[in-house]
Amino acid sequence: ENDYISIIKEFHKISTITIPRSVVLPDHFDVQLHGFADASTFAYDACVYIRCATPTGVFVNLLCSKSRVAPIKTTATIPRLELCANVLLAQLIHSVTSLLHLHFSRTFLWSDSTIALAWLRSPPDKYKLFVANRIAVIQELTRVEDWNHISSASNPADIRSRGATVQQLQDNSLWFYGPTFLTSSFENWPHKQGEPNHHEQLPETKHHEQLPETKHHEQLPET
């Protein structure tokens, strides 16, 4: 009952949050899309920002976001949920680019999961069905080279994946304007690929059984 009352109170506070209607300034000369994804055991989230460069400076604003409640399953590991968040971001970015009649010079997609990033850079058929299907969707909707690694502290999607009250969101510059490095030059951005040290240690890889060797090998037919 107490949880229900708290949720109702939060709903009433939502009207106190205001978001600017205009996200693209008329005197812009470069517009980029930046998407972020993150997951926790509670939920996974994707959010998209527009980075607008003008003669007077660089402006970044939240464009849209989408969240999903994490499934209550023992098979829902954190890497799997992070991959689901990346799928959600891929779908959201695809919708944005299809609906907005704007020319985006670049699209950057950010995730703090090294395992999920390594997965989506690999052929889907290397992995078990759950992971393989989601890799295929991501690779169909986005370019693999657009995906980058970001720290959890700089990832705005981390805020909603872990849950936040209206008051916590109100004055949260990371949520409304993205990480501060976006307003600086490209040289100051994170440039790590974020891949694990050893690809062979990636989870969900298919296991191929090795056939026992025989002393005499039969000649295979040519056709």
TrEMBL record:
Pfam families: Peptidase_A17. Residues 189-223 have a biased composition (Basic and acidic residues). Residues 188-223 are annotated as: Disordered. PANTHER family: PHD-TYPE DOMAIN-CONTAINING PROTEIN (PTHR47331). This is Uncharacterized protein.
